[in-house]
UniProtKB/TrEMBL annotation:
Family, as annotated: Belongs to the TrpF family.
UniProt organism field: Marinomonas alcarazii
GO molecular-function term, one example from the UniProt record: phosphoribosylanthranilate isomerase activity
E.C. number: 5.3.1.24
Transmembrane segments: none
UniProt-listed CDD domains: PRAI
Family matches, as PANTHER family: N-(5'-PHOSPHORIBOSYL)ANTHRANILATE ISOMERASE
InterPro entries: Aldolase_TIM, PRAI_dom, RibuloseP-bd_barrel, TrpF_fam
N-(5'phosphoribosyl) anthranilate isomerase (PRAI) domain mapped to chain residues: 5-199
GO biological process entries: L-tryptophan biosynthetic process
Protein name: N-(5'-phosphoribosyl)anthranilate isomerase
Length: 205
């Protein structure tokens, strides 16, 4: 299985190109101003214009105004959207772009029912739940909570690192994995050795 890899929290062109050179399938850009990995729409679109082909830029929003979303994705047709807040299915599909919806998993959730609320999503991103924090917690959740018969491809997130990526893929067999803090030197700045090791671990047999 060739697991796809999204490197999230990209804030500069150098890290973007480095991740692409090591085989990243997608790059995530955070448009949530409370995040230390926030990037402006102008900077992100400048980076996206220079990405090589077959790499998908993903715009991450948390209950954002439609004007902000449109200012980002309207500037380049390559954008996919990741909704990480409490957005309804109708809000997510209004932009006529492929999107994935993030779910913060905790004990007792009916994940099948939550996934089924977003029939227009191309994938569901499963992240760790932490009260008051929409994502980027750096924490692993209990992967055994993930049902085997979900109707959408799964993007696994939450506390993934080069050290645990093989275990995660062996246990969950996700369509893709998403990492940010686990491959950083500091918040928003990536470590090339860790990016390389993570992608190698995700894509090796």
């Amino acid at each position: 299985m060739n697991c796809r890899v999204k490197i999230c929290g990209i804030t500069n062109l150098e890290d973007a190109m480095m991740a692409c050179n090591h085989g990243a399938d997608a790059l995530g850009f955070v448009f949530y101003e409370k995040s230390p990995r926030y990037v402006s729409p102008e900077m992100a679109n400048s980076i996206v214009k220079q990405l090589p082909p077959f790499v998908t830029p993903v715009a991450l929003f948390v209950d954002a105004d439609s004007s902000l979303i449109e200012s980002v994705v309207g500037a380049n047709s390559r954008w996919m959207i990741q909704f990480h807040g409490n957005e309804s299915e109708s809000e997510c599909r209004r932009y006529d772009r492929p999107y994935m919806k993030a779910l913060r998993v905790q004990q007792g959730d009916n994940i099948v029912a939550l996934v089924d609320q977003y029939p227009s999503a191309t994938a569901m991103l499963l992240d760790a739940y932490k009260a008051g924090v929409p994502g980027g917690t750096g924490e692993v959740f209990d992967w055994s909570l993930i049902p085997a018969d979900l109707s959408k491809p799964i993007v696994l997130a939450g506390g993934l690192t080069p050290e645990n990526i093989k275990q995660a893929i062996n246990q969950v067999a996700p369509y893709a994995v998403d990492v940010s803090g686990g491959v950083e030197l500091s918040k928003g700045i990536k470590s090339e050795p860790r990016v390389q090791e993570f992608i190698r671990g995700a894509k090796s047999e």
